[in-house]
UniProtKB/TrEMBL annotation:
The protein, known as: Uncharacterized protein
Residues that span the membrane, as ranges: none
Pfam families: BBS7_GAE, BBS7_hp, BBS7_pf, Beta-prop_BBS7
Alphabetic keyword roster: Coiled coil
Organism per entry: Periophthalmus magnuspinnatus
Keyword Kinase belongs to the record: no
Residue ranges constituting the BBS7 helical hairpin domain according to the UniProt record: 576-649
Amino acid sequence: MRLLPPLSKKATQKVAIADHDGVLTCFGMKKGEAVPVFKTLPGPKIARMDLGGAVGSPREKIFVCSGFQVRGFTKKGKQFLTFEANLTENINAMHVSGADLFVCASYIYNHYLDCKDQDYFLSGDKINDVLYLSSENLTRPFPILACQDRILRVLQGSELAYGIEVPGPPSVLELYNKDGGDEILYGTTDGKIGLVQIGDQSASIKWEIDNDKKKGGILCVDTYDIIGDGVSDVLVGRDDGTVEVYGFDSSGDPTLRFEHVLSESVTSIQGGCVGKESYDEVVAATYTGWVTGLTTEPQRAEVGPGDEVKMSKEMQSKVDALRAELEQLQVKVLQGREQYHQTSQSSTAVSAVPVFSINDKFTLCQDDASYSLTLEVQTAIDNLLLQSDVPIDLLDVDKNSAVVSFSECDSEHNGNFLLATYRCQANTTRLELKVRSIEGQYGTLQAYITPRLQPKTCQVRQYQIKPLSLHQRIHSIDQDRPMNRLSLVGQFSFAEIHSWVVFCLPEVPEKTPAGESITFYFHNTFLGTQLEATYCKGEGHFKSDNISTISILSDVLSKEATKRKINLNISYEINDESVSHTLRMIHPKLEYQLLLARKVQLIDALKELQVHEGNADFLIPEYRSILDESANLLEEYKKQPAHLERLYGRAAFYILLAAGCAELKLKFVSQV
């Protein structure tokens, strides 16, 4: 979605929005009603939309991309451009600046000038967004790629100028100053926002906003002075339906000024004047196609006691129109039900399976070492069935109002470790779950989604639980830690060993990297240990301060090589100090969880004492603080089932290693 520039200072703006049916729609608002300007015919799914125009003129031309084709439309709906990009994959990111067109597929970036090839770049990881930065402060303009490996890549022609490390996988880029400047905003899939100042040789991060309240990931960002203080505010849309407006205080630090929660993920957000002259709005588009406007116009009228609230003619007409529309919809629903009932009784009728799309995301959360599974459907969800062939824990989620029930599993005979059913409340279109896996045990988690449609139909989504599922990509590791080493030598290709690493570890690009060798760094979100993986054709070297990580890698990689009938020469270097080092890392986590469990055990007894005595003044400060924080303690304990037992298991494993002999260590390395 984009807002077209106004024809004059006081005029309202038109809204251009594209959808998955390939339809581009442009409309304006008049007296609270949507007035269509133009609408294109259906076609292939539109992946991206951007505005463009000649340099120095208003950006009022609309560009959309479908598959590997880019089309351009005037503000009145006349198509003036059809361009086929020479890409083998569909376009998933696009930016237009004057006569320059920038398009990206999964790993490929292409720059066209007047529809002619200019530059090309092959990225090391998936490209999520692209931006073109041109400023008087820079000696030349720079294209910038937001890549999944937590790096913003700044290009110079077809070459990489430098990279900027960001705290999460960047999902969206936006110019902070739409009229120019050298600052860009980025949003990440784990909910962080930042501002980066781009230079000719390097860049600096001016500020970052952490996702302390565990809100959804960032899907869209825009800048607009919605508060009216002369400074552009940051408008943010998240995948949990949250709309945020960040202003800036006197020191230039971002401050949350406004927040509103919608029932669906916010796919696009813009600031402008759409509904009424002189009143700015935040316009948001959601996953199922709703366009919502949050206005600065006062919506409340105060009256004294006994006074009658009088409705304006404009408001009364809106209410009447809504009532008439509601009645029409009710009539259509009744007609549709009657027609379906008659058709279902017919002997010649053919039943067609209804088609529905699912917006799903399965991501690792660093803070609590769990996976977040988000499912969003265009219609209401009836129920969800989860099935897993590996042991996993289901964690409580505050936003989840569905009723869950568990079925007994016989893992020995049918391989099921989890069977859980979520029965959703009416009009639930989005469901968020959390699961925690156990490293070393890998398999598949399957989700069967059944919407409230007739005839009943179901779709299945599969999510791989990898052997080192709790590891997350990072930019570097601490080389001073005591490291255990695993080396593999054999007759395997670079692509083969890369496919093995992809099978073992999350956040590794499926495409084989360019070059002869590659190095990845990982962080264990549960224990805090680290892993370095370096490999090339015929060789693979892995080192970690966690001996369990090395043993899991050895086991899985040797199995994968055996499947392909490849002989491996495997060698180990076990560092005795790594065992005590890992125990020292586990100790504070274990101590915290043990203290939390003890506090939770005392809550009921302390509450009973408080009721019996009438107050808690006689208790020592430690017990009074437990009573004061009882709600938070219970909530935290409830969110982490089996956390203490897992830490006990890890600690016991390393204590055995520390106390055992060399034979015991080799046994663990070869069998665990």
